[in-house]
Amino acid sequence: MKTSPRGETTREALLEAATVVFAREGFPAANLRGIAERAGVNPALIGYHFQNKEGLYLAVFTQWVANMRACLEPAWAVIAQALDGPEPQGPPETVYLEPLLALVDGMVAHIVMEHPAWGELMVREQQSPSAAFDILFEGIIGPNQRALVALLQRLRPGFEGEKVRLIAGMIVSQVLVFRNARLPLMRLMDWAKVGPRELDAVRALIRRNTQLLVLGD
Amino acid sequence: MKTSPRGETTREALLEAATVVFAREGFPAANLRGIAERAGVNPALIGYHFQNKEGLYLAVFTQWVANMRACLEPAWAVIAQALDGPEPQGPPETVYLEPLLALVDGMVAHIVMEHPAWGELMVREQQSPSAAFDILFEGIIGPNQRALVALLQRLRPGFEGEKVRLIAGMIVSQVLVFRNARLPLMRLMDWAKVGPRELDAVRALIRRNTQLLVLGD
DNA sequence: GTCTATAAAGTGATAGAC
DNA sequence: GTCTATCACTTTATAGAC
């Protein structure tokens, strides 16, 4: 945790290398020698900077959550304002639908285009949760779920809570499939990568779907 | 591959134990001694029956694909008949929508209720594909994608191919989320498990969503 | 802060008796 | 078909010189 210039460089190089290797290999298979080699530092320095393998792993997630929160917090703020703000102007379909679509757009942009390593780490943690999963849930997943459900409840006050939460899950699933089942999906689409053109197509369709799911009876 | 009664029992015990352990730990972390212990047999027998660790792993997938195909093939047959059969009676919305909903219902029943181990194995293979992924894709994912896309193309002949395939992916994503992101979803729903009541709620909502996604403009 | 060297504890695989 | 015993190898972690 020292901040002397040399040590900080080492620390960051190790974090970057660990992100890639843990994502590609998973925690048990990841090799500390390989991480150190990729970072261009000596393996023993992992023990010095992060205590042990698990310490390095958790540090990767802590850094990622901070990064992702910085991107999502603006959208959450807009939603909180729409929910708690003064008297809403106009019908719910316009007051709450736009913040909802903005949130979904943000998720699409980040999840579809983000460095694949992040998605792989998230999937692995959902598969075999460790302490890192709590870091993810408390920092990102939970707040995002709460914002989404609150918006949907305002949009469809007639729906019972369970139906609203399930719809929220299904909306998110359309975005998550790009990280959770990227390989079969890319084969289905016959895409080699998701570039700007593909991103536009995805965003447009998910916007359409979200409106259908929210406004359908 | 012998079929003498004693050896066959050992083989099946090893496959069952390997399914659970590979799913929980992943291929690299799974321990052959642990698998043998759980199966109640001697570790050396893994080499005798499956050659090596990889042979055991692939055998798990081969067995699973055979099992799953047995469940899905009836639905695929109904769809093939609707697609290739004689003159369709009535509008596409009735001729093709019912087979589509039947297929989705089947996926829901299997994926939501199946032994969690299968889903975990599938996710892991999508994350770091090995030869087992091809077994999965050729045996299950590919045929299922083709059936779904063919139906959607008939239902919405006006949509371009890319849009149809993307809609197909989004329909599937709603089912897959129950294996790909089960943990956050269960927390969102505040469900401890997916019993008959929860399954009904899921099936009903996914039917609703599928119709909205297919019939929406 | 960084390095070398090595300890300590696994791992998958197999030879050979039964 | 099954078991015991063991080999060859890799892994994480750390002690101690610089």
The dominant shape of chain A is elongated
Counting structural domains of chain A, the number is 2
What quaternary form is this? homodimer
CATH H-level superfamily of the largest domain in chain A? Tetracycline Repressor, domain 2
Instruction: Spell the H/E element sequence of chain A.
Output: HHHHHHHHHHH
The major β-sheet of chain A equals: none
Q: What structural category characterises the helix and strand content of chain A?
A: mainly alpha
How confident overall, as mean pLDDT of chain A?
91
Q: What is the percentage of strand-forming residues of chain A?
A: under 5%
Unreliable segments of 5+ consecutive residues of chain A: none
- CATH class label of the largest domain in chain A: Mainly Alpha
Largest interface: A-B, 51 and 50 residues
